[in-house]
Specification:
globular
């Protein structure tokens, strides 16, 4: 976890989503729907995906920890392989040992 002060510039919704991302513990994942509920916008799952994709600090704000509702690995700005690598690193596994399936999007 990073302890640097952040000045996030984005819409009010985006900043709520980005702050929610900072609360995801190391080695844990959460779905886009769970983030939508966390920011009190339970029907805004696609908007959450857009905010996650617009994350300006993707290592400090851990957007790689967000997965699809079915546990699949979905889009990531750094690419599918990078997301798998980061999740594997946090779980202490090899990328081919991850319990996540590949999602429709990359």
């Amino acid at each position: 976890m990073f302890t640097v002060p952040l000045r996030l510039i984005g819409s009010e919704f985006q900043t709520r989503v980005w702050h929610a991302l900072t609360k995801i513990p190391y080695g844990k994942t959460i779905s886009y729907g769970e983030i939508a509920r966390e920011v009190n916008s339970p029907k805004a799952v696609r908007a959450v995906g857009g905010a996650v994709g617009a994350n300006p600090l993707s290592i400090i704000i851990p957007c790689h920890r967000v997965v699809g509702a079915n546990g699949s690995i979905t889009g990531y700005g750094g690419g599918y392989a990078a997301k798998r690598h980061l999740l594997a690193l946090e779980l202490g596994l090899a990328a081919d040992e991850l319990p996540f399936s590949r999602g429709v999007k990359e």
